[in-house]
Design a protein that fits this description.
The complex is a heterodimer of chains A (318) and B (628). Chain A has 318 residues and is an alpha/beta fold. Chain A contains eleven helices and eleven strands. The longest helix of chain A is centred in the first third of the chain and has 16 residues. Chain A is globular and about 75 Å long. The N and C termini of chain A lie far apart (71 Å). The model of chain A has no long low-confidence stretch (mean pLDDT 95). Helices cover 36% and strands 18% of the residues of chain B. Chain B has 19 helices and 22 strands. Chain B has a seven-stranded mixed beta sheet with strand order 11-10-12-13-15-14-20, sandwiched between helices. In chain B, strands 3-4-2-5-6-7 form a six-stranded mixed beta sheet, with helices on both faces. A four-stranded parallel beta sheet of chain B has the order 19-18-21-22, with helices on both faces. The N terminus of chain B is likely disordered. The chains are: A alpha/beta (318), B alpha/beta (628). The interface between A and B is large, with 58 and 70 residues.
């Protein structure tokens, strides 16, 4: 009738529309100028864009500046122990496939104390979005060397300059078996930050995003030049990669066409020296997911459960 | 060449079995010879014939100790009785040994006495190796001088009639021999073999049944040993399992949906059992990358509304303490099973101790009150998981269940639980949350608050391990930490209100009260019963709730002249150089009771890594009351 499909009236309509304010939690207590503020805004925008139901969304974090993130969202949140966000997030997602799970972690939290959990979380490949807010310094405890601090970084623990070369979180993630989504972005390019987080959210599996960002208090000079220098960033782009508005893409001076299914090339670009590579390094939507294994038998009827327990007891009957 | 080799005594006529009301049997061998499998089977068959049973595994510390070594004794002790058996007993009546050297390990643990019968593999007497023949001869002479009755048995020779590699079949031949000695039902024995080899090919089953019958017939023709142990009266429906299996089945019966663990001896076999069956009952097992991740995973699941358990042993508990502190602070329900082993550090992985009591109570940073309960029997291992799950949810707190290596591997029958749908955790509440109720809306009297769960509309809150107010807002006000600490502590007082004073075993007053907890109960009560029979005024008390500590202890203690704990724990011995009553370090339960009751509680304890036996407790009681 009138050219309309007969099942139009069966389209489920959401009884509620969530606005940006619906996702806003407490007032963020990060320092003025901290990159975390922009990431928070991007995440809230994503929640509105995707209309994530606040009560079905959980932000899990560890300890550090970045890990205060859940307090600033009006969703469920879990601000736990230093380095231990991944096991908690995995426990949340394992039997609650209905929940959207985000992990917000920092360079100390993820790449130092939590390294073992990080490596295994990549391998578990549960469907969650992970944001590594990496400012290459320990901020909350007032300037100690981070595992991602560049060699020679002067800090309270290494006043003469840090001794070891830093961990490359992208390279490390790419090195773990069953890796499924690895991207990098920089906090001073909000358009790219937003599109990267969105692509990560849409990925069915463990999506790892490292945000290279500034600490205005302890690493003031680190990216100052980069913020204004259009050659400081190299954009990895591809039709299967992270989509950017045409105008935004044109603003980059350095562009590399990179097919994210090519992990070897991804590893090569992760090592770019003079310019910071941003974009999608690797994606595999078909990697096995541990949360799919964890979801089976959820909600088994009571009778069946009792039956199974009695069968087990039968094996021990005298 | 040995000339002291014993010759089996002549067969007696049928029907001459001696009736006994209990016997202690041991099978000891080199590691890998299947003694435990044979012994567990013997225990199960005996339980199925209606006897009371208690088994204790004898485990060497190394996975593969050298053959014929004194420290390498691997085996099992099975105590079978006409009444309920609650502990491993004292000296063995019959020992089957696959070589003579492993017996020394047991002799050093005072496992045998004058008159103990040793059925000893005699192939060593004719060994090609001089040193082995010498060792065998020396040992035989030695055993005889100790008053043991040694009977040489050609086990290898007999087994070779059925299999090409006797090492793989001797255990079932031994089982057959024991089945004849104790008049066990051969059909039940075959059923048991069918059960243990259920995953193997039919011909494996047949080969083992042939060995069983071979051992049985050989004993019938060559041994005059024959005992009858009458069954218990009116035992009703029974199940027989070990403590770790009981923990696993208790987990199912409690309706727990997630078990997150990391392998650690002696806790792991509980998760092996769960791996086999939890999915059939609607749950799932997660093997985490480490102990910390295991508890973090369980806490994440619990936060998300699913019931969770983590199972570990001492060193694992140490790693989990940071997360236990978080669970206390953030009030996340969680069941933690700690199958205690000897410590500190990696200590004695396969041996029993009760050394984690104070670590469980006080291991975390700051003040972290939590519920701690300790089952004393295998049946309680099953029941306490259900209890712990309910307590954890009702009081919104972690609950630690302290078992130990003795309960974990000990096998004993108990009345079959009547599975109840009410034991299962209720499905999670996803109804709308009343916005005005704060996530930590502490009841001023009980400290308990309701718990919003992700998915509940309007219940959104941010859980944190930082000090926080009733809205879970990080505490910037100095009053808040004091107030929230009070609320968390108040819950322990609320639990205490639900407890009754424990019941004294024996008279309610007397000269000595022996206080225990956990797996020592059977040995303590047996010792107290014999002491009372000889006229001593002694009673015992067994504590199941360690935190909060059970009520009424002071009143009970007042009625006894002396109070003494019996524990598998370290304590300084008074009289040692430098040790006085003031400087002495007390065993952990004694420490706790002294602090809580201000009574001068004494302790009797050791850390040999062995379960305590009734005669040692009895000796202590007699010494304490200066009686002969």
């Amino acid at each position: 009738m009138f050219g309309l499909k007969p099942d139009l009236c069966n389209v489920p309509l959401s009884d509620e529309h969530y606005s940006l304010e619906d996702y806003e939690g407490g007032v963020a207590r990060w320092c003025p100028g901290c990159g975390d503020h922009g990431i928070l805004t991007s995440v809230q925008k994503l929640c509105r864009e995707k209309q994530l139901v606040p009560e079905k969304t959980v932000f899990v974090s560890g300890i550090g500046c970045s890990s205060r993130f859940p307090h600033y969202m009006n969703t469920y949140g879990f601000h736990g122990l230093h380095g231990r966000a991944f096991p908690v997030a995995s426990g949340v997602k394992f039997r609650r496939p209905d929940l959207n799970v985000f992990v917000v972690t920092g360079d100390g939290d993820c790449c130092s104390i939590g390294t073992a959990h990080w490596i295994h979380a990549i391998r578990y490949n549960m469907n969650m979005t992970v944001l590594l807010l990496d400012n290459s310094i320990y901020g909350l405890t007032k300037k100690q060397t981070s595992p991602t601090s560049a060699r020679g970084t002067k800090s309270n623990t290494h006043p003469a300059g840090s001794i070891l070369p830093p961990i490359n979180p992208i390279q490390t993630t790419l090195g773990v078996s069953n890796v499924s989504f690895v991207a990098q972005t920089a906090d001073w390019n909000p358009a790219h930050v937003y599109e990267t987080i969105k692509a990560a959210y849409e990925h069915p599996g463990f999506s790892f995003v490292r945000v290279v960002q500034r600490c205005p208090v302890y690493m003031r000079d680190l990216y100052d030049a980069a913020v204004t220098d259009p050659t400081a960033l190299t954009l990895l782009t591809h039709e299967n990669g992270i989509k950017l508005h045409e105008k935004v893409e044109k603003s980059f001076k350095n562009i590399i066409k990179h097919d994210p299914s090519d992990i070897n090339k991804g590893r090569e670009y992760a090592e770019l020296k003079d310019s910071i590579p941003i974009g999608l390094f690797y994606q595999n939507k078909n990697a096995p997911r541990y949360d799919e294994y964890g979801a089976h038998n959820i909600g088994m009827p009571v009778e069946e459960r009792l039956d199974a327990i009695n069968k087990e007891l039968d094996k021990y009957a005298v | 060449m040995s000339t002291t080799q014993s010759i089996p005594v002549a067969k007696k006529s049928k029907g001459s079995a001696v009736t006994v009301n209990q016997h202690v049997v041991e099978i000891v061998s080199d590691s890998g010879e299947g003694a435990q499998k044979a012994g567990q089977s013997f225990g199960s068959i005996s339980a199925k014939m209606g006897n009371g049973v208690w088994t204790v595994e004898i485990i060497p510390a190394e996975i593969q100790p050298p053959a014929r070594s004194r420290a390498g004794a691997s085996g099992i002790r099975i105590r079978v009785g006409s009444e309920k058996v609650t502990n491993m007993g004292d000296h063995a009546n019959i020992v089957v040994a696959l070589n003579e050297q492993v017996l020394y390990g047991r002799i050093s643990q005072d496992a045998y006495t004058e008159g103990t019968v040793i059925l000893l593999e005699n192939k060593w007497a004719n060994s090609d190796i001089d040193s082995i023949r010498k060792e065998y001869a020396t040992a035989l002479a030695d055993f005889k001088s100790k008053g043991y009755k040694v009977i040489g048995i050609p086990m290898e020779e007999e087994c070779m009639k059925f299999v090409s590699d006797a090492r793989k079949g001797k255990n079932m031949w031994v089982l057959g021999m024991l089945c004849h000695i104790y008049n066990r039902d051969l059909t039940k024995a075959e059923e048991q073999i069918r059960y243990i080899f259920k995953k193997k090919a039919e011909k494996v089953f047949e080969a083992n049944v042939n060995l069983l019958k071979g051992g049985y017939n050989w004993a019938k023709e060559n041994l005059e040993l024959n005992f009858e142990i009458p069954p218990l009266e009116n035992a009703g429906d029974q199940v027989v399992m070990n403590g770790n299996e009981a923990i696993a089945l208790g987990t199912l019966a409690a309706g727990i949906e997630v078990c997150a663990m990391y392998p650690i001896t002696p806790a792991t076999s509980a998760s092996h059992k769960l791996a086999e069956c939890i999915e059939n009952a609607g749950g799932i097992l997660h093997q985490a990358e480490d102990e910390i991740a295991a508890i973090g995973f369980a806490i994440g699941s619990s936060y998300a509304g699913k019931t969770a358990i983590t199972i570990t042993s001492g060193p694992g508990l140490a790693l989990k303490t940071e997360f236990i502190g978080l669970a206390v602070m953030a009030e996340v329900p969680l069941v933690i099973v700690n199958v205690q082993r000897g410590g500190p550090s990696t200590g004695l992985p396969t041996k029993v101790e009760q050394g984690d009591l104070l670590a469980s109570l006080y291991g975390e940073a700051g003040d972290a009150p939590k519920i701690i309960i300790a089952p004393a029997t295998i049946e309680e291992c099953f029941q306490f998981v259900i209890l712990a799950r309910k307590l954890a949810e009702a009081f919104r707190t972690p609950v630690i269940i302290l078992t130990d290596a003795n309960l974990a591997t000990g096998v004993s029958p108990f009345p079959r639980p009547k599975i109840n749908a009410e034991w299962l955790a209720a499905p999670i509440d996803q109804s709308r949350w009343k916005k005005e109720i704060a996530p930590y809306n502490w009841d001023p009297e009980t400290g308990i608050s309701p718990r919003p769960i992700p998915g509940q509309k309007d219940g959104m809150y941010r859980l944190t391990g930082l000090a926080h107010d009733h809205n879970s807002k990080v505490a910037y006000d100095p009053e808040i930490n004091q107030k929230s600490s009070e609320a968390r502590s108040r819950k322990m007082a609320a639990v205490l209100q639900t407890l009754k004073p424990p019941k004294v075993n024996g008279d309610e007053s007397g000269d000595l009260l022996v206080v225990g907890w956990g797996s020592t109960k059977g040995a303590i009560e047996e010792a107290v019963a014999s002491a009372r029979k000889s006229g001593l005024k002694v009673s015992s008390l067994h504590i199941h709730f360690l935190s909060p500590l059970e009520p009424g202890l002071e009143e009970i203690f007042k009625k006894f002249k002396k109070i003494k704990t019996v524990e598998l724990n370290y304590s300084d011995k008074i009289g040692d150089p430098l040790i006085t009553k003031k400087s002495r370090r007390y065993a952990q339960l004694a420490w706790l009771l002294r602090a809580q009751t201000l009574v001068d509680v004494d302790c009797y304890s050791n850390v040999f890594g062995q379960p305590i036996n009734p005669s040692k407790v009895l000796d202590m009681i007699k010494e304490e009351l200066k009686a002969k």
